[in-house]
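Thread: quick sanity check before group meeting

JM: Hey all, I'm pulling together slides for Thursday and realized we never actually wrote out the predicted structure for the chain we discussed last week. Dropping the sequence here so it's in one place. If anyone has concerns about the input, flag it before I start.
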Amino acid sequence: MSLYTEYLDEIETRKLQGLNPKPIEDAALVNELISQIKDTSNEHRKASLEFFIYNTLPGTTSAAGAKAAFLKELILGDATVEEISTEFAFELLSHMKGGPSVEVLLDLALGADAAIAAQAADVLKTQVFLYEADTDRLAAAHAEGNAVAKDILESYAKAEFFTKLPDIEEEIKVVTYITAEGDVSTDLLSPGNQAHSRSDRELHGKCMISEAAQVEIQELQKQHPDARVMLVAEKGTMGVGSSRMSGVNNVALWTGKKASPYVPFVNIAPIVGGTNGISPIFLTTVGVTGGIGIDLKNWVKKQDADGNTVLDGNGDPVLEQTYSVDNGTVLTINTKTQKLYNEAGEELVDISSSLTPQKVEFIKAGGSYAIVFGKKLQSFAATTLGVDMPAVFAASKEISNEGQGLTAVEKIFNRNAVGVSSDADLHAGSDVRVKVNIVGSQDTTGLMTSQELEAMAATVISPKVDGAYQSGCHTASVWDVKAQRNIPKLMSFMNKFGLITARDPKGEYHAMTDVIHKVLNDITVDDWSVIIGGDSHTRMSKGVAFGADSGTVALALATGEATMPIPESVKVTFKGTMPDYMDFRDVVHATQAQMLKKFGENVFQGRVIEVHIGTLLADQAFTFTDWTAEMKAKASICISEDATLIESLEIAKSRIQIMIDKGMENEAKTLQGLIDIADNRIEEIKSGSRPALTPDADAKYFAEVTVDLDEVAEPMIADPDVNNADVSKRYTHDTIRPVSYYGGDKKVDLGFVGSCMVHKGDMKIIAQMLKNLEKEGEVKFSAPLVVAPPTYNIVDELKEEGDWAVLQKYAGFEFNDDAPKNNARTEYENILYLERPGCNLCMGNQEKAAKGDTVMATSTRLFQGRVVEDSEEKKGESLLASTPVVVLSTILGRTPNMDEYKAAVDGINLTKFAPPLAKPALRHN
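JM (edit): ok, ran it. Output follows.
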């Protein structure tokens, strides 16, 4: 059977799903299409021509290589196709973005045929995805006196690829669609349980919100053909939870504009809005596609006559509507006045923050990639020609406040800034390019990242990146058909690209399903690092880490850089004493609760939390930084004392060495390079030449929060509050309650200890609790307890120390890597399940609790449907708590009271924390 026949069979299968033919990425199939196109009598010629023109993926896919080569034949006259003229062949090449197409265009532009060279040059002048191999050819041709090369370089130096693009529309009419009331999780736009289909954009698009919502959006488009549909989070924030490039892709697929007539199912420029704006990492993703994210501010806090906020019976602010965005409301975005207007032309709100000069450039260029590559291309051309570079792009916003010290994030950005115009210190609000040290790609977004890399014609990791890792944790639980199809392909691509991969494409080392954030936390070996990762929980306890969409991850891998504003910071310090029976997880929850009590609003949102933990090692401190994603923070930074940081780096070195010993090192010796960086950093700290990162004493913060540990008297639980009468308050992480609130009688159906929020100490706590309980008689679980260690290192260490044997003693199920599960569990017994290291229930794409369950978990996710779905009789709810609370709840089958809790943890070594002693900060260390 030919590949084309197989493709036709696949098309028929997709028709049954209401899908169009899948875009082609394989060169072998494209070559069959070309053979049938050349045969004018072939019965499949017409269809083959359509597939070749409209359904072949661009960039560096093998299909793009075959397509570009055939278009070159047509242009040179080596082959003839009546339907593809020379002009049309050039047009097709112009939409292929780079890689093979740029290589062909350079061949033609630098070739002997002057007429063809001129046409090729005109197309090249519109292209920006050029890499060193391409620019080296141009530079060499220019040095040899090639006039066409000089002409192209002169165009690049003027950035005509950007200046000749149409300006953005002055007025953009939109019609509103209320996605949901309250915060809109990206899980609604791109459900985790559909992660396997993200790289199949048309198929994945069918999972956005609901079929009914999709129909309603289409109806709005029919009713308002001159308007764009804007998805709205009413009384909430749009895009909380994660970056989800797939979420933005889905929104664009249903409401955006087609990127190219010759690239199927790739839409750009979605418009989204939220009463409380757009979640920072989601807003970055919107910018990747040239979209617009608007802070609507259509509900405000009611004020009394004295200007005080009016509170309701629960102590929450009363909101008043300033204008309506109900379904079908027609609004106008004016990009010149930077205001939002109603249908009558009345001004509603200033939206200048949505239309900064940088964001306007993204909109004009169709996304941020073109700007990033365009700036590099212009700089290269000007340098090669020896001319001054005209100011075409918006200047980097450089804010320097004389006499003002630097926060920790400002210090990191200043150290890693690229292309700034002066030596003055940059402060928050500056918009700069920074070098990226560490990059992480996770497995349910990795296929999209690889697609983005292919689309931007990247073939190898940037040498600027110190280390990069491709995880396998999000698909660790179940080795099902979907995982078997997707993951090997992903690992092979990323391994060739230059990443350290969780799975060896050659099968020579054991598959590692360690949680990505834990691995990134280990391979971050400098506290001045910038880290970019394809997950909202990319929050390290060393350096500053930003969760990002798959596209931004791809850009960081390809260029070793990221562009973003320096965020404002909120300083978090501690006072008081933590009771012996409390776990540090309770301090994490208490921080959120005390902050909200003090300010009445979330001052963490969109900012960096600079947390002065100091004496906690990286593993334990990570519990705090990891949770800052749920605090809606942009990022977080741990301020660590010298001795503690050195110990954390020594632990990181040992774990990197384990990766080397397992055979995970690559030809570039990336892992050994990280150990060398760690050794250098340790020496700097010991010598005093560069102590552990600290902010300046006179740094300026947006706000400061001091957490009083004396007030943390009992375990704290983050409650989704699923039955709150105000739907906007459901499924947020802001409802923090003490365990006594539940009266010791709230039924718990399942417990989960796992995800990135736990460390080795949590596993030991479970073993210690079981040993204590067995002294009093037989240990019985009244509810299932699912335990998923974060890493294999932890499992190995627990085995050496005897704790794993204790867990095995009570386990009714233990993972087996030689025979992994190939079906997700749907029913649970009242036993202990020892699951494979990885995300497990927290991810929600494979394993789930039974519908309608009340789950007590250590994880981070309490969104509707994530860990547990609703049943017809009851809403599923995921309550988040410390490990001892989770374990005890499964033993009892209900929430414990304080007496039961204290007795259960008596003598157990919980994760302790004492505030570090204050010391004067060094200036600009």
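AS: nice. The chain has 31 helices and 33 strands. The radius of gyration is 28 Å.
JM: adding both to the slides.
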